[in-house]
Structure formats: C-alpha cells, structure tokens
Amino acid sequence: MLTIGEMASYSGVTVRAVRHYHAKGLLREPERDHSGYRRYDAAAVIEVIKIRTLAQAGVPLSHVRELLRADRAEFTAAVADIDRRLEAEIRQRQRHRQQIAKLAAGDHLALPPQVVEHLDQLRALGIHERIVQVERDGWILLAARSPGRVTEWMARKREQNADPMFVAFCRTLSQALDGTTDDLRLVELADELAAYLTRLADEQGDDYVDDTELEAPLVALMDRLVVDTVPPAGRLIELLTKRGWRGWTKLERRADHRES
Question: Is the Cβ–Cβ distance between 130 and 178 less than 8 Å?
C-alpha cells in the first residue's frame, strides 16, 4: 500500500493534484490506516493516471468523471464532443492571436483598418505625431458610436488628403497646435482656415462642411478631448468663432456670417 506521496510519484502528478482530484470527486478517498494516514493501492494509481491523461489531453475536469464511467460507445461520443469544443476554442484563440498581433502595431486598438490606414497616411504627409494621436483618439470614439459611417467619413478624408492645398495647411496646423497657446501662427491659421471653410461652404454647401450628424454630448466630449490634449486648439477655436465659424468636431458657420 502506498502513501499519498508515493502514489502521486507513481502516477506522475503532485500531491496537490491528488488532493484536488479528491475535492472534485474524481478520485475516491481511501480508508486511513491505524496511524491515520491514507493508503492507496494499484487501482488508485491507475485511476489517477487516467485522470491525468485526460486532463493533459485538454479534457476539462468537469467532464473527466463521465468519461471514466462511460462505456466504449459513450466514451467515443463524449471524446468527439470534447474535440469539437477544443477545435472551437483553438479557432477563438487564433483569432485572439491575430488581434494581439494587430494591437502590437499600436493604432489597431479599437479602430477599423481603414482608419489605421488614414492615420498612417497622415504620418506620411508629415503631420505631427501628437496631432495624429489626437485624431486617433477621436476616431476611437467615432467608430464606437457610429461604425456604419466610418467608410463614408474615410472617403471624405481621402478626398481631403489628395488636395495639396489642404495637406499643406494641415502640416502648418499640426506644427502650430504642437506649440503654445500664444503662438502667433494661430492667428494666421485662423484666417486661412476660415477662408478655406467659407470657400468650401460657398462652393459645396454648408452641409458639405458639417455632415457629421453627431449628437451634441458626443461633439462636446470630442472637442474637450482635443482641447485637453492640444491646448492651442482651444485658442484656434476662439479665433475661428470670431471669423464666423464655431466648433471643431462639428464645424458650423454662424448664422450672422451666412450669405443671404
């Protein structure tokens, strides 16, 4: 007869594992000898080896008991069912690995591929990384709130990024926003941006400039994000307001500056 330590050694498991099998009801607890110690026979060793083998094969302990008690047909059916579950888990873990691989790239967290592509394009165009990060955070909010409109918005972004004048303006804007709130370039930028927006609205209509259709609380949240992250943006918004445009995420021409 074997002590629990000896039985565990013969079975290829730890004493802790044997006690765990007892607690789970997988292994019957033997009678104690006159000294109060449990003593195990060969049948117990064989039983633990079976439990260990099933567990190492990926069978959850909750299913081990039914397999140990099953006849040949039941055992085959149960193993097939467990195999299907394991296959599903493997596929899920593979998907998780793919997601983790994407996360390693940084911008892929919570963003669709087309937005990530847009952010990479901004970097290629020379937009300051700090500004790219602010745009990224804004897109996380937008994509979560209105995922169905991302493709539409991205089409507009690609159109803008293909405009040399707009790109040149964005480069200057990103440099100014990476500075301080008293940067004199902000005044010039406010003039340029107001003129650009007015020309765009006159040619394409005010709806072309503001087509986000976002609810006011989300707009306020995103504007706050920009100002908190890039303080000079707050100053630029003030300057734009004096020039007939208000907002940032949702740009609107003030009524007293609309053409009659």
Answer: yes
At residue 253, the 3 state secondary structure works out as strand
Rama region for 91: left / alpha / beta (φ>0; ψ in -120 to 50; rest): alpha
DSSP state at residue 250: S
Domain-by-domain residue ranges, the chain? 4-103, 113-257
| Cα 31 to Cα 24: distance, rounded to the nearest angstrom | 18
**Which stretches of the chain are DSSP H helices?**
4-11, 15-23, 42-56, 61-69, 72-103, 113-124, 129-145, 150-161, 164-177, 185-204, 206-209, 216-229, 232-242
Task: Report the C-alpha dihedral over residues 131, 132, 134, 138, rounded to 10 degrees.
Answer: 140
197: amino acid identity, one letter = L
Distance CA 50, CA 43 (A): 11
Tell me: the pLDDT tens digits for 106-152? 667 678 889 989 998 988 988 888 888 888 889 988 888 889 889 98
Question: Within a 10 A sphere around the Cβ of 25, how many other Cβ atoms?
Answer: 10
Q: What are phi and psi of 141, to 5 degrees?
A: -65, -45
Residue 67 identity (one-letter amino acid): L
Tokens of 27: 């292994």
The answer to whether 143 and 153 have CB atoms below 8 angstroms apart is no
Output the pTM of the full model. 0.54
The total of other beta-carbon atoms located within 10 Å of residue 217's CB is 8
> For 4-103, CATH number?
1.10.1660.10
Using the structure block, give the residue that is written with the tokens 């047909």. Answer: 73
CB neighbour class for 26 (10 Å; exposed up to 12, middle 13-18, buried from 19): buried
